[in-house]
Amino acid sequence: MNDFNNVDEKYQLLVEASAQPRKEYLISLLELLKEDEEWIRLNAVLAIASLGDEKSIVPLLDALKKEESEYVRAAIIKALGKLGNKKLIPIILPYLKDEDSRVVANTIESLEMIGDKKIAGRLLPLLKNKEVRVRVNAAKALWKFGHREVLDMLIEMLSSEHTWVRNSVIYVMGQINTPQTRKILCEQLKKENEQLKIKIIETLGVIGDESAISYLRECVSDRSIRVAESAQLALSNISLRRGEYFPCQNCSYMNPKNANFCGSCGNKIN
Q1: Which structural domain, as residue segments, surrounds residue 177?
Q2: Within a domain: residue 16?
Q3: Is residue 151 within 8 Å of residue 180, measured between CB atoms?
Q4: Where are the beta strands (DSSP E) in the chain?
Q5: Separation CA 76–CA 86 (nearest Å)
Q6: 165 domain residue, yes or no
Q7: What CATH number does the domain containing 255 carry?
Q8: Please, what's the b/e burial string for 183-200 (b: 16 or more CB within 10 A of its CB; e: otherwise)?
Q9: Residue 259: inside a domain, yes or no?
């Protein structure tokens, strides 16, 4: 009973913090980084990240030095990346060699968000990392930094016998979001199990590219009711957003609104 009471009490700290004005809210969250319970510190970091306030940089760095939980360390590193400050790169880079794959994967994402092409050379060796999450995150970041060859590795990984491997690749291809990766996802629909079919369908629905319509229509008659329903929802989403295209500022190629990279020149769009 005491344990439950303690959880309720600690949860109340988060609730009370969220009710404060922004400045006081941040101060309260930074104080929660000193709490003994891992889940309190983790939730505090996630809340701090959502604020995007550079005043949190120094306290987060101090907390990172002392943090023993790999979950919280990974969250702190990602929170720092969201701030986009290139001065943080030398501090974050060493975590590419962390013993925990979760920390390494989040370090890659953080460096990708900061967006400095100069660190691409540090990411290339990670394409051979034994951990799938590390490999696909490295591929996604390297694609952003102009390394188009990583797509071949991702395509090869789609042939893995392991669902969790293909699941990771599907997510990354959705993030890369070019005409080529959208076509690959559409074709993958014919090969996947129910779980990953739904994931691909939902991804295509969010992207909203009309080129996926014929593939999604086939899924409407899938023998799995869940797949059929997901396909119908995705088609409705695409129908509502039909015509949402805009020109690339670099080459004027018309891209779907949600594209991340230009389908012609490969330049990052957003």
Answers
A1: 149-270
A2: no
A3: yes
A4: 245-247, 254-256
A5: 16
A6: yes
A7: 1.25.10.10
A8: ebbbebbeebeeebbbbb
A9: yes
pTM: 0.80
Please state, in angstroms and as integers, the Cα–Cα distance from residue 9 to each residue in 6, 24, 37, 40, 110, following that order: 5, 20, 12, 11, 32
Question: From first to last of its 270 residues, what are the pLDDT tens digits of the chain?
Answer: 344 455 566 666 666 666 666 778 888 899 999 999 999 999 999 999 999 999 999 999 999 999 999 999 999 999 999 998 999 999 999 999 999 999 999 999 999 999 989 999 999 999 999 999 999 999 999 999 999 999 999 999 999 999 999 999 999 999 999 999 999 999 999 999 999 999 999 999 998 888 899 999 999 999 999 999 999 999 998 877 666 667 777 776 767 777 788 877 777 776
User: What does the block give as tokens for 149?
Assistant: 């060859």
Taking the CB of residue 148, how many other CB atoms lie within 10 A of it? 12
Percentages (nearest 5) of helix, strand, coil residues in the chain: 70, 5, 25
Q: Alpha-carbon distance 235 to 216, whole Å?
A: 7
Residue 230, both tokens: 């997901």
Number of domains in the chain: 1
Q: The tokens 């990670």 sit on which residue?
A: 126
| 89 domain residue, yes or no | no
Angle between helices 57-66 and 38-51 (to 10 degrees): 150
